[in-house]
């Protein structure tokens, strides 16, 4: 297989995709860093803007008490993690250029399956990593900072210990190095990852109360699920679903009854 694994097929229908891939192949690392920095800054701004719009729209459906005033220190950590996300993206680009990470082209059934596979695999692995971060001798050094924010806001998605952020980034790069996904699968997963992260830290529940009663659908994690974890550190460790918490007995008791509400012990 070519060192930069990409099949230039069906050029007429994929000229834009080909152009992007060609640009990423030929760009210098300094140019790539600038592109990825802009990309991550745009993602950060969208999370803050869209997250706050949703929070305002559903302000009558809080799942936690209002967050305290934003501090310069918290904003600084957000910006540090945006820079770290840029470096992680740059590391992925370097691995791709050297053939360690490989992507397939095209959008078809297999690329749609890629999205499902990545969501399931990453959900399971991040559940395990999250449980590991809660081990008593690791927690103070890795995960305690994130739990300082019991009342999350959209930006809390970026309120991470840098070590934890690097850990999640390294896990992601490992997965796509082992599992050769499609460009579409990778891109769709990353979009959903940001969407789930934003929803999980809204502090309000945009989903209807009936959501918790719909079979299968109610296995998808939302704002209520993660807000309860910020309040109760021993439960609700999942990211995209409640599957692993159900399987390993860590789903908070009364989760469905308290869906869309402020947990009883916080009022």
From TrEMBL:
Membrane spanning stretches: 32-54, 75-96, 116-142
Keyword Iron assigned: no
Subcellular location, principal: membrane
The keyword Ribonucleoprotein is annotated on this UniProt entry: no
GO-annotated molecular function: iron ion binding; oxidoreductase activity
Keyword vocabulary terms for this entry: Membrane, Transmembrane, Transmembrane helix
Cited InterPro entries: Fatty_acid_hydroxylase, Sterol_Desaturase_Related
One GO term describing the cellular component: membrane
Pfam families in the cross-refs: FA_hydroxylase
Fatty acid hydroxylase domain sequence ranges: 116-250
Subcellular location: Membrane
One of the GO biological process terms: lipid biosynthetic process
Protein name: Fatty acid hydroxylase family protein
């Amino acid at each position: 297989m070519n060192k930069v694994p990409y099949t230039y097929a069906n050029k007429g229908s994929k000229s834009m995709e080909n152009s992007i891939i060609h640009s990423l192949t030929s760009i210098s690392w300094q140019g790539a860093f600038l592109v990825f920095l802009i990309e991550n800054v745009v993602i950060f701004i969208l999370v803050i803007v869209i997250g706050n719009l949703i929070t305002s729209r559903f302000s009558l459906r809080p799942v936690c008490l209002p967050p305290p005033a934003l501090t310069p220190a918290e904003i600084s950590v957000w910006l540090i993690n945006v820079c770290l996300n840029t470096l992680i993206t740059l590391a992925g680009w370097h691995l791709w250029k050297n053939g360690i990470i490989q992507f397939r082209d095209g959008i078809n059934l297999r690329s749609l399956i890629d999205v499902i596979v990545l969501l399931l695999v990453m959900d399971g692995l991040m559940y395990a990593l999250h449980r590991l971060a809660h081990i008593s001798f690791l927690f103070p050094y890795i995960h305690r900072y994130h739990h300082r924010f019991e009342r999350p806001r959209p930006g809390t998605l970026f309120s991470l210990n840098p070590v934890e952020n690097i850990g999640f980034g390294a896990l992601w790069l490992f997965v796509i190095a082992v599992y050769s996904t499609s460009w579409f699968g990778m891109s769709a997963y990353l979009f959903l990852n940001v969407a789930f992260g934003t929803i999980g830290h809204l502090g309000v529940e945009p989903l209807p109360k009936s959501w918790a009663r719909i079979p299968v659908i109610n296995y998808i994690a939302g704002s209520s699920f993660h807000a309860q974890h910020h309040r109760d550190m021993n439960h609700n460790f999942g990211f995209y679903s409640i599957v692993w918490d159900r399987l390993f007995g860590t789903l908070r008791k009364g989760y469905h009854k308290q869906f869309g509400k402020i947990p009883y012990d916080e009022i």
